[in-house]
Amino acid sequence: MLGEVRGTVRFKEPLSFYTALRTGGNADIFVVPQDLDDVRHTLAFAYRQQLPLMVLGGGTKMLVKDGGIRAVVVKLEGRLARADFHGEEAMVGGGMGLATLVRHAAAQELGGIEPLVGIPATVGGAVMTNAGTADGWIGDYLSASYFPYPDGSFGEYKPPSTPMAERGLEMWASTRSAR
Ligand SMILES: Cc1cc2nc3c(=O)[nH]c(=O)nc-3n(C[C@H](O)[C@H](O)[C@H](O)COP(=O)(O)OP(=O)(O)OC[C@H]3O[C@@H](n4cnc5c(N)ncnc54)[C@H](O)[C@@H]3O)c2cc1C
Question: What is the pLDDT of residues 47-89, one digit of tens each?
Fold first, then answer.
């Protein structure tokens, strides 16, 4: 439950602080989880209270209405915005900026995702919108995506071999219909 969250919990938080256009009203409840346990507590809280939960990335593809959002809004930072490299692959937190990921990969002498460097996005936001340019889409580099359920278990999403433009939509549909 929310009292168990060790990260930041705020009420009536102005989302204009977090959207690229600097517009939008308040989130009823705004959580910056410290780690995955915090994410689980937040999900369980929203599930039990029957409140919608939405994740905010860099807020570059988000228009929040002036009246705000009646929901639990989650912003991933800190441990949930890091990359752990394993050979040529990386396990990346959804809150990490795409440009930061490209820089970290280059520091590991890994390349390939440079076409994404100029897109203002977090990795989570980029995956959800299948961000990209004519030179490459994030779906081209994604082997799997993992997301938590309110009961603490994790789901896995593997992009199917369908046309790139449809991938973001498929993931959206699959996460929305899950449990
Ligand atoms: C100046 C400018 C240039 C741009 N250039 C490009 C471009 O070249 N190519 C391109 O494809 N797009 C571009 N965009 C659009 C935008 O940058 C992308 O769509 C980007 O992927 C959005 O990422 P974000 O982190 O800002 O997501 P947000 O805007 O915060 O969120 C977008 C959606 O993803 C969801 N979401 C975010 N993070 C998560 C998460 N961790 N888990 C689950 N859901 C999540 C949100 O709930 C929301 O539905 C541009 C935007 C701007 C303002």
Answer: 999 999 999 999 999 999 999 999 999 999 999 999 999 999 9
- Check pocket membership of 94 for ligand 1, CB cut-off 6 A: yes
CATH number of the domain bearing residue 14: 3.30.43.10
Tell me which residue range forms the domain holding 86. Answer: 80-177
Same domain, 70 and 84: no
Nearest CA, atom 13, ligand 1: 119
Enter the pTM of the model: 0.90
Domain boundary among 58, 75, 92: 75
Q: Do the beta carbons of residue 121 and residue 58 sit within 8 Å?
A: yes
What is the C-alpha end-to-end distance of the chain, expressed in Å?
19
The token pair at 26 is: 């308040």
Residue 59: C-alpha distances to residues 7, 174, 176 (Å): 20, 22, 20
